[in-house]
Specification:
The protein is an alpha/beta fold. It contains 17 helices and 18 strands. It has 2 domains: 299 residues, Aldolase class I (TIM Barrel); 91 residues, Orthogonal Bundle (Arc Repressor Mutant, subunit A). A hairpin with a 6-residue loop joins strand 13 and strand 14. Helix 1 crosses helix 10, helix 3 packs parallel to helix 4 and helix 11 packs antiparallel against helix 13. The radius of gyration is 22 Å and the shape is globular.
Length: 497
């Protein structure tokens, strides 16, 4: 007999066929793929004249090193040399410091930007805990050269084996007050097949260590992996809830080549050989089975007082203030504050109280990044940028706002872009369609919109199809306001893609 929840989920997938995106085509990406491309020189020129002084910003360091390479991972990374780990970590701390110094020396406003959230990711950011001197040098540089607010949320991302009682003491001493641990699965066969370097027991030990800190932390879990079922994924989530984990983040497997998108490296499973083998052998679960996993997990989370803010990030009540959303998510997605990103493959954006944005992309090839930074450069290791304006900017901003799972306030779009989301096209049609499909609801006072639980269930697909494509891909921009953000970069120098 079909369960009521499964019936509702199947109905949701059947009613929205355009959102049924197969795993090998799952091209979900938080950055925009539209907009005029500018080269590295033009990008840095625009970066220098941006007015970011006194504005809130998020700061990101990308450490491209891992103890092992997961077969599904298509982020910028490489395996650290096991016999020379301390020296390699010091080398990368120095490279990141050199990169930020290039900006500090040439971008007048950077020292005055208000850093309200800070994140070290990768790769495996928490590998820095293996070299205290390198880690201290990097954090001392950050604190001494940037305007880091007293209440800054400082997050460190790692794997279970990185978080021990000793390493956590160092992280706390250096000011970190939030952590993210990549568990992905508590099934040994899933981890072994994916080349994860830890056991379920090690994952639970790390969680116990993090719980003792009293600080908020998230446990990253993936669904749609080979060997997973709805029952096994539900069991994993139930175990973590029983442990008292304050935040669980649920990610669907994406087997799309981020390398071709200019924001990552190819994974083992990205190769045509592996794609064919995994698909033909039925190792990749179907879309229906994949979302049965997620739905089973969210049922447990809802029943135990967790709420998704942002979408996919399920927090216990009162874990975070002001909407119960981590500051990193509030800054990057809800407020769409500037994201200052450093390291190979790092991408960010310059935004603010103006209707055009500048998306920044660093060199993704690690060897080329190192060669650039060791060659006495006068400019940062930028690859290219994108100018987001008109409907591209509006679609991108709406996509992030939807992801945040906080109210999308109509007046903010009138003030910033000069558009009426309820009456101007293409926005009015998109919002009407989302409400009709019960993927979005309007507040009782009529002033804002937010995702429904169905919209949250399929949030990444909605962001991609409805906001990035249906709005961002519209050629006739309805935005009534322009900006001086990109001067002195002129439209005739931009390379249209």
């Amino acid at each position: 007999m079909t369960s009521p929840r499964k019936a509702v989920l199947d109905e949701l997938l059947e009613a929205n066929p355009e959102l049924n995106i197969p795993v090998n085509d799952y091209n979900i990406n938080v950055t925009a793929n539209q907009g005029a491309i500018i080269d590295a020189e033009q990008l840095f020129a625009a970066y220098r004249v941006f007015d970011g002084a006194g504005r809130d910003a998020h700061f990101y360091f990308h450490l491209p090193l891992c103890d092992y390479i997961c077969h599904f991972c298509n982020y910028v990374k490489r395996k650290i040399r096991a016999n020379n780990k301390a020296e390699e970590l010091m080398h990368w701390a120095d490279l990141l410091i050199r990169e930020t110094q290039l900006y500090l020396d040439q971008v007048p406003w950077l020292r005055d930007a208000l850093i309200r959230s800070f994140y070290i990711g990768g790769g495996t950011g928490a590998l820095l805990l293996n070299n205290e001197l390198a880690f201290r040098r990097l954090i001392t540089h950050l604190n001494g050269n940037f305007n880091v607010t007293e209440d800054c949320e400082r997050s460190l991302e790692g794997n279970p084996e990185n978080f021990t009682e000793e390493s956590i003491e160092l992280a706390l001493e250096l000011g970190f007050n939030r952590f993210s641990v990549g568990v992905q699965s508590l099934q040994q066969e899933v981890n072994a097949f994916s080349n994860r370097g830890h056991s379920p027991e090690e994952a639970l030990r790390a969680i116990q260590v993090l719980l003792k800190t009293g600080r908020p932390f998230s446990v990253d879990m993936m669904f749609g992996l080979p060997y997973q079922t709805a029952e096994s994924f539900e069991r994993d989530i139930r175990t973590l809830v029983e442990f008292g984990v304050p935040c669980l983040t649920l990610y669907r497997l994406r087997n799309v080549e981020r390398e071709k998108m200019g924001i990552g490296n190819a994974s083992v499973w990205n190769s045509e050989k592996h794609k064919h083998r995994l698909t033909e052998s039925g190792m990749f679960p179907s879309i229906s089975a994949t979302y049965q996993m997620r739905d089973a997990a969210t049922g447990i989370l809802r029943a135990n007082g967790y709420h998704p803010s942002p979408c996919g990030w399920w927090n216990k009540a009162t874990t975070y203030p002001d909407g119960n959303i981590p500051r990193v998510s509030k800054d990057k997605w809800e407020k769409y504050n500037s994201m200052l990103a450093f390291g190979p493959g790092a991408y960010g954006w310059l935004s603010g109280n103006q209707p055009s944005f500048l998306q920044t992309h660093n060199i993704t090839d690690i060897n080329k990044y190192v060669a650039h930074m060791e060659g006495n450069p006068t400019v940062p290791p930028l690859a290219y940028g994108r100018i987001l304006e008109g409907n591209v900017a509006i679609g991108t901003r709406l996509s992030f706002a939807f992801k945040a799972n906080q109210p999308i306030i109509l007046d903010e779009y009138r003030e910033l872009f000069g558009v009426d989301l309820l009456n101007d096209e293409p926005y009015a049609n998109v919002f009407a369609e989302l409400v009709k499909r019960d993927l979005m609801s309007r507040s009782p006072d009529g002033r804002s919109f937010a995702p429904t639980w169905k919209g949250e269930e399929l949030h990444e697909e909605i962001m991609y199809i409805y906001f990035h494509k249906s709005i961002g891909g519209t050629l006739d921009p309805a935005c009534k306001r322009r900006t001086i953000l990109l001067q002195p970069v002129h439209a005739d120098t931009a390379i249209s893609k």
